[in-house]
Amino acid sequence: STSSFSYSSYHTLEEIYSWIDNFVTEHSDMVSKIQIGSSFENRSILVLKFSTGGSQRPAIWIDAGIHSREWITHATGIWTAKKIVSEYGKDPVLTDILKAMDIFIELVTNPDGFAFTHSMNRLWRKNKSTRPGIFCIGVDLNRNWKSGFGGNGSNANPCSETYHGPSPQSEPEVAAIVDFITTHGNFKALISIHSYSQMLMYPYGKSLEPVSNEKELYYLAKDAVKALHEVHGIHYIFGSISTTLYLASGITVDWAYDSGIKYAFSFELRDTGRYGFLLPATQIIPTAQETWMAILTIMEHTLKHPY
Amino acid sequence: QMNFTGDQVLRVLAKDEKQLSLLRDLEGLKPQKVDFWRAPARPSLPVDMRVPFSELKDIKAYLESHGLAYSIMIKDIQVLLDEEREAMAKSRRLER
């Protein structure tokens, strides 16, 4: 059962999928599991749905692990899922959110890459797709989205860590999300969780042009990182991806924004300055606790600003 | 499992765009000599790169010859990986 699961440890793909089954069984009144597709190596791509009723309600999307070596993101996603079911009915903000909206969490967005980090290469980032005539393996799933595909901040070299792939949504892991969100048609916020470097960012990555509600996103990000900082004193910087970090094309949050999801954010979780992707498991829970406060801030704003 | 014994992560603080582009030049080398953990972005942000043990001498010489200040963020990646793996195994025993 999930009660013996250690939320302060890293786990394999099998352990996470087993946890998902137990979690859904234990919270079947609110949580269901949806397979939205299969990965390149034919692993199930699973999404947890948190709903207290109704159908096609306005919804919030959260994904973790699109870059497989960023283990803190999957672990934070699992803790967050557990937090949602344990706080519903207690935390008034979360309770109001779930009374009006659904929440979808994809814990392992790149299952093939994640399995590979456990079996062969802990520092693998991309998915595991292969194509005839291409010597190197994998596409950077966060460069494979239709918005700005192939632009600056992505690479046409298949051996590059930011290889965008042969065409937009060529990768099944990306196409599955696009199909699911597009078919659902009522997503109001998208949060994509990465690591590391302690940043909270919003579109665009593909250009320096500000989005139409940039001011709203700026102040929402400001409030979110303030709420995060108050938990364990960790500092984040925030802003649009292109002005805070670098140009990055074909990315999740740009696609979400261009698809009409006004509240699209990308987290770069902590590393506390010296571990990078190898953040010790002792920091999983503090990281998840602080991230939760930022996520809750974004979800509350989405609830209070329907569109 | 790939072994990363002796691989290091260097944190480089580029002073300006010129130095950033010197770092970007490293990305295109064949075969790949560095793996950017934090890619060159802007002078105010550090660049973290994993350097295989076999390339350490050349890469450090490159950085020093171009006046690029760096520190060693992770001295031996494999040590951290072994600790991570041990922690997972211990946790699994406890869960059981």
Explain what the structure shows.
- The complex is a heterodimer of chains A (307) and B (96).
- Chain A is α/β, with parallel strands linked by helices and 307 residues long.
- Helices cover 37% and strands 16% of the residues of chain A.
- Chain A has helices spanning 13-26, 71-87, 92-100, 111-119, 172-184, 214-232, 241-244, 252-258, 284-304, and strands spanning 31-38, 44-50, 59-64, 102-106, 187-195, 199-202, 237-240, 263-269.
- Chain A has an eight-stranded mixed β-sheet with strand order 1-2-4-3-5-8-6-7, sandwiched between helices.
- In chain A, helix 2 crosses helix 9.
- The radius of gyration of chain A is 18 Å and the shape is globular.
- The mean pLDDT of chain A is 97.
- Chain B is α+β, with helices and mostly antiparallel strands and 96 residues long.
- In chain B, strand 2 and strand 3 (47-51) form a beta hairpin.
- Chain B has three helices and four strands; from the N terminus they run βαββαβα.
- Chain B has a four-stranded antiparallel β-sheet, covered by helices on one side.
- Chain B has helices spanning 17-27, 56-65, 77-95; strands at 8-13, 35-38, 47-51, 69-74.
- Chain B is 42% helix and 22% strand.
